[in-house]
């Protein structure tokens, strides 16, 4: 039960940061005019890129912080502030992930889908925080499962859009951004408390 609780506690923030449903409208607009085979290749490339970037950062991120003399509390505060700014920009009118997109890129799977759309600053920061709080096993399993969810949502993107509609997916994304803002405040609070407790 303890292991399941750790997994759940690490899974939810990563799920919020990844925002699988919120990525669907942009994905659909980016792959318009592509064949089914091309679309599946783009999805495979995007998931491979997103997972690789997240895992490398998860494994090497802490080492880089130690090398620079940055404590985990410093990173919690800075990461929390960054997440809050990202969430605020996405929530405010005129904001959104469309600013990340350049449809002229040849390899959509790598950029902008793989990174920064699926694995962006929010996912990288959250993953490192979950690693410190809940351990490598829970964080890694949560990350891989979230990438599997993204893969399913992209494969079934057209069906999900038909069910939820563009308005529904945007509304779901807004809820995720609010949760992301709340998680960022929690991270800042933990970081500040950690500084005083040391």
Structural description of this entry:
The protein has 198 residues and is mainly α. It has one domain. It contains eight helices and no strands. Helix 1 (2-18) packs antiparallel against helix 6, helix 3 packs across helix 5 (109-118) and helix 3 (36-68) packs across helix 6. The chain is globular. The two termini are 30 Å apart. The model has no long low-confidence stretch (mean pLDDT 87).
Draw up the topology in text.
Blueprint lengths: L1 H17 L5 H7 L5 H33 L3 H20 L17 H10 L2 H14 L1 H20 L1 H41 L1
Helix pairs in contact: 1-6, 1-7, 2-8, 3-5, 3-6, 3-7, 4-6, 4-8, 6-7
**Rounded radius of gyration (Å):** 17 Å
Percent of residues in helices comes to over 70%
| Average predicted confidence as pLDDT | 87
Uncertain stretches = none
Structural class: mainly alpha
> In angstroms, what separates the terminal alpha carbons?
30 Å
DSSP summary, beta strand count = 0
The description of the largest β-sheet is: none
> How many helices?
8
Number of domains: 1
Task: Give the topology string: H per helix, E per strand.
Answer: HHHHHHHH
Percent strand equals under 5%
- Gross morphology is globular
At a glance:
This protein has 198 residues and is mainly alpha-helical. The protein contains eight helices and no strands.
Overview features:
198 residues, globular, mainly alpha
């Amino acid at each position: 039960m303890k292991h399941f609780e750790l997994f759940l506690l690490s899974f939810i923030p990563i799920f919020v940061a990844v925002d699988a449903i919120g990525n669907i409208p942009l994905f659909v607009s980016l792959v318009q005019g592509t064949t089914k085979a091309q679309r599946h290749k783009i999805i495979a490339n995007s998931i491979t890129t997103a997972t690789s970037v997240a895992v490398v950062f998860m494994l090497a991120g802490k080492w880089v912080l130690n090398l620079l003399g940055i404590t985990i509390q410093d990173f919690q505060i800075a990461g929390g502030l960054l997440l809050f700014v990202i969430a605020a920009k996405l929530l405010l009118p005129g904001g959104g992930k469309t600013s990340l997109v350049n449809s002229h890129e040849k390899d959509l799977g790598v950029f902008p889908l793989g990174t920064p759309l699926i694995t962006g600053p929010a996912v990288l920061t959250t993953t490192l925080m979950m690693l410190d709080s809940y351990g490598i096993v829970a964080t890694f399993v949560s990350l891989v499962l979230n990438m599997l969810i993204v893969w399913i949502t992209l494969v079934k993107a057209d069906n999900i859009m038909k069910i939820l509609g563009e308005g529904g997916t945007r509304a779901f994304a807004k809820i995720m951004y609010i949760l992301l803002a709340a998680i960022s405040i929690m991270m800042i609070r933990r970081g500040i408390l950690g500084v005083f407790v040391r």
